[in-house]
Amino acid sequence: MTKFASLSRQYWPTVALFAFLLACWQLAVSLGGIREYLLPSPLAVWNALWHGEIGWSQHLWATTLEIIGAFVLAAVVGVALGVAIAWSPLIANALVPFLVFVNTLPKVAIAPLFLIWMGYGIFPNMLMGALIGFFPVVINTAVGLSQVEADMLDLGRVFNAPKWKIFAKIRIPNALPYILSALKITATAAVVGAIVGEFVASQKGLGYVITTTQSSMNTAVAFAALIWISIVGLLLYGAVVLLAQLWAPWAEGVD
């Protein structure tokens, strides 16, 4: 009961804000005479969430798979590159300018190239999401591996620990809060990247549903797709937060 009361005190402002916004939304549509294709009512969006003709399950599955794949790919590649940068100044001098260049490229302009190279499918959208989300992981990993107390490194040298063991026992545990903090950013970036890929080239997915509603002006379905996208993103973000609490509860202070 105490736990429930604590959670209630923590989240009731968020629930109250959402309820207030929904009420304002409903009143604006009902009293303002706004046409359905411009702004559907919350009730119409709720009904669209369960619209059987849309086939939400296949679109939701495709987008979820793309987002999770993009997140895992960005995490693995980002951590590996961050370790390489922290391991060798030579690698850092070679990689960092190139990674900055890649990160500054407009991702929407890259998506059509993925279509030419790989065609339609889930994997190109995974790559798009990973491309948007990997850079924070690289930077935070490199920073976390580098910002280690000198006394800890000296202790390792006193015991003649090899470089790889210092990385495994000292640098990587120190970098863990930084990595987990970056993964929270990547969790949301992967969602954006996957949907961008679906906007450009896809035959299924929630982004595809949104693009198909443009011709029919079925705005309620577009809003419903946005809600499903947000739910997937929130679940992924919540999983990262839970992982941070289990692996490194002190990591919250690094955000």
Q: What is the number of strand segments?
A: 0
Q: Give helix and strand order, one letter per element, not per position.
A: HHHHHHHHHH
Q: Which geometry do the CA atoms define?
A: globular
| CA-atom Rg in angstroms | 22 Å
- Enumerate how many helices there are, as a single number: 10
Low-confidence stretches: none
- Span between N and C termini? 30 Å
Helix- and strand-based class?
mainly alpha
Mean pLDDT: 82
Task: Note the main sheet.
Answer: none
**Percentage of residues assigned to helices:** over 70%
β content, as a range?
A: under 5%
Note down, in words, how this protein is organized.
With 255 residues, the protein is an all-alpha fold. Helix content is 83%, strand content 0%. It has ten helices and no strands. The protein has helices spanning 2-32, 42-49, 56-87, 89-104, 107-118, 122-146, 150-158, 163-200, 206-216, 219-247.
Short description:
The chain is mainly alpha-helical. It has helices at residues 2-32, 42-49, 56-87, 89-104, 107-118, 122-146, 150-158, 163-200, 206-216, 219-247.
